[in-house]
Amino acid sequence: MTQAHEKTSAGGVVVRRDGIAEVCLIRPAGRRVWGLPKGGVEAGETLAQTAVREVAEETGLEGVVDDTLGTIDYSFYSREEGSRIHKTVHYYLMHSTGGDTADHDHEVSEARWVRIRDAMHLMTYPNEREMVRRAAESLGETVD
Asked: Where in the sequence is the domain holding 115, given as residue range(s)?
């Protein structure tokens, strides 16, 4: 059995609060899942810089990193690479400073602001829900 290739990504739990705390979720193009923006680290970038860039690309939003939320890791088979990938994703709590969710890139079919409580039901992956739960806790919000 061949060893999995290691990949590192970074992403953000982007929040805004106008009375009610909301998080920006994305639906990748061609998929029926809802999740968090994330992507691969480019040469010379820190993990936090990657998170800010990926959030801007995939959501159309400008954001500032407030804190680290932790990492998730998982493995999957990549048809493009013909091998197993072990991916580690570093997540950051970010607040939106501007932009428009309509300005997301082609990799995303929709970017949407969702109440944090509703996001917990809409999101597909439990490990990403945990990142949103941590963000809510940091903001003093309850999600249950």
From this structure: 5-139
- Tell me, yes or no, whether 144 lies in a domain: no
Can you say how many angstroms the Cα of residue 135 is from the centroid of all Cα atoms in its chain?
12
Q: Which residue has the tokens 């597909």?
A: 124
Instruction: Tell whether the model's pLDDT for residue 44 goes beyond 90.
Output: yes
Distances in Å between the alpha carbon of 7 and those of 1, 42, 88, 103, 126? 19, 11, 6, 27, 20
- Mean pLDDT for all residues in the chain: 94
- Report the number of distinct structural domains present in the chain: 1
The tens digit of pLDDT for each residue in 96-121 reads 999 999 999 999 999 999 999 999 99
In a domain, 133, yes or no: yes
CATH code where residue 22 lies: 3.90.79.10
